[in-house]
Amino acid sequence: MMSGRGREKKLAMDAVQIDGLALLKIIKHCNENKGESVNGQLLGLNVNGKLEVTNSFPGLPADEKDHEAFLDSMMKLLKQVNVDNNSVGWYQSAYIGEWIDSDIIRMHYNFQSAIPESVVLIYDPYTTSKGNLAVKTYRLNPAFMNFYKGKNFSHVNFAKHKIDSGDIFEEIPMKVHNSHLIHAFLYELQEKDTFSCEFDRLDLTSDMLFKRNLDIMTSCIDELLLDQGKFSYSQKQVQRVKAQQAAQRQKLEAKAAAGEIVEDEVLKKPIPYAPRLDAYLTAHKISHYSKKVRGMIGQSMTKMFEVDALSRQIS
């Protein structure tokens, strides 16, 4: 599936540098499929703790088969034309930043297990269309990787590994790199009045975007409250099983003291702890959207003061 399989040594990584052309390919692919969840491969190399993404290509649609054969074929073709074919991660489109779920965790866990320095790049075409380039890179926290490996998602195991809802993904700083010729071209465009966007920077935050983020955060809170009710019920089941085991243990001790042969079938019964991964993901979403809303409010307040200052000068 991925080149570099079998590397077990964890490589240190402090930042991600993506080539401008590779980022444009990602943006083009996601914009052509707005409203759909699309993904693709990131190609590059880890150089002295900095992951350099030099190329990318789109993956097959979700309803297509033979994804493995497609990836192998693309890697061979890229190698034939002497283009970087070392997989360093993958990218995923997201609608208003809505991307955190168990499937994303499972896919990136497989990636990061095979390629320790791999990242997942999240691009939001809707937020970008409102004037802010919404692209970030993430990787799974090393502590969460060790926890996820055990496939035991009970609250007891979360507490044992000291995993909080904020310890699932960690954001890696990212910057876009362009050649000197592209920089010169951009400076040339900046001098032309037809490409001026000075006043566009004063546009306040879109009400629709702000409302959508609040709606998602509210639905996550409702989902978390519903999950808390299920968790309370499961805890009652756990206490019932523990009570049965305690009563059975007393009977067995009494029989053993009398010299009888005892069987401990009830004590062998596993305690039915409910999985809590979805609840932790929901809490992670709430924290994620809270930070987004707080950032949007801060930007809007700054722009409002700037607009007010300009209007006073004009009057």
List keywords for this structure.
eight-stranded mixed sheet; alpha/beta; 315 residues
Quick summary:
The chain contains 10 helices and 8 strands. The chain has helices at residues 20-31, 67-80, 102-114, 125-129, 142-149, 155-160, 180-190, 207-257, 265-268, 277-314; strands at 15-19, 39-47, 50-58, 87-93, 119-123, 135-140, 169-172, 174-177.
Task: Describe this entry's structure for a reader.
- Helix content is 51%, strand content 16%.
- By secondary structure, the protein is of the alpha/beta class.
- A hairpin with a 2-residue loop joins strand 2 (39-47) and strand 3 (50-58).
- It is globular and about 95 Å long.
- The model is unreliable at 1-10 (pLDDT under 50).
**Average predicted confidence as pLDDT:** 79
- The count of β-strands is 8
Q: Could you tell me the radius of gyration in angstroms?
A: 26 Å
Instruction: Give the helix level as a range of percent.
Output: 40-55%
Helices, strands, pairings?
Layout (H helix, E strand, L loop, with lengths): L14 E5 H12 L7 E9 L2 E9 L8 H14 L6 E7 L8 H13 L4 E5 L1 H5 L5 E6 L1 H8 L5 H6 L8 E4 L1 E4 L2 H11 L16 H51 L7 H4 L8 H38 L1
Parallel strand pairs: 1-3, 1-8, 4-5
Antiparallel strand pairs: 2-3, 2-4, 5-6, 6-7
